[in-house]
Amino acid sequence: MILQNFSYDDPVEKAYMITGIRGSGKTVMLTEVSNQIGSRQDWIVIDLNPSRDLLQSLGARLYELPFMKRFFTEAKIDLSLFGLGVSIEKGNEIFDIESAIEKMLRAVQKEKKKVLITIDEAGTNKSMQVFCLTFQRLIRENLPVYMILTGLYQNIHHIKNMEGCTFLQRAPFIILQSLDLSAITVCYKRVFGITKEEAVRLSRLTNGYAFAFQVLGKLYFDKADTTSIEDIILEYESELIIYSYNKIWSELSGKDRLVVKGMVKCGAEGTNPVNRQVLMNETGFSSSMMNRYQSRLREKGILGVSSGVERGYYLTLPRFGNFVKDYHMDE
Predict the structure, then answer these.
(1) Is the pLDDT of residue 281 over 80?
(2) Given this structure, which CATH class describes domain 2-175?
């Protein structure tokens, strides 16, 4: 969808927002899209660091383009006033960084090129708000500038609803889902040269979680010849905890954690969901309160809803229940 849109001479969508739980593959997807678009002669891809001043960074990156230096030399404009490079010819004053960026994008337009701005793990700071407001003004001027943001759901949701940034409310909102287990099975079987049954067993250990797929695959590739599958699984679980689950747990509120611990007590993992009413009894939550927190946990990619006749909830992340049971039930 993203690549197809940006293959058009005049792309319909100006911005995309990609979200998903930590380790769901947001950065991998962004990198793949950036590489493919960056290989095209009519595109310039600029990746910005979300912890820096985004407008200053964009201005500096645009000014580095070879034809941009020619443009400003001919116009006798120097951007040192903005920390980018003071000689400004009378009549050509640039009063702020927004004006400088606009002029540079017009130069890009003259070169018949387009600019894709990528921001991985976008935050909700003041710099992001100013950047998005500026971006909105630039697209109103029909300048050839486009954007892809990635981030955790709560951050992307906040950015999408920032005051004054109406273009973000219309932008496609992509939530990365779990990987298909059959695709993981095929990959493991082909790469490791194992039986289908063993590949299925390994794929089920991942629950379709992209980070788990990578971790388990690497461990199995490196150690299957010298280590038992039981020991590989122990190390796999440890790496999930160290590199993902500790951070995910730290970002949960007290009531989020109460719901998760209630699910663990009820054994709600994978194909064994806990009935909604049973979980409400376990946590002491009212119906409206349960609606609120199950929705929060779904958005974070931790809780899934069963599709059976009786509504139930289950933990989506592989061995997350073990992690909570072993290290957090007594908190």
Answers:
(1) yes
(2) alpha beta
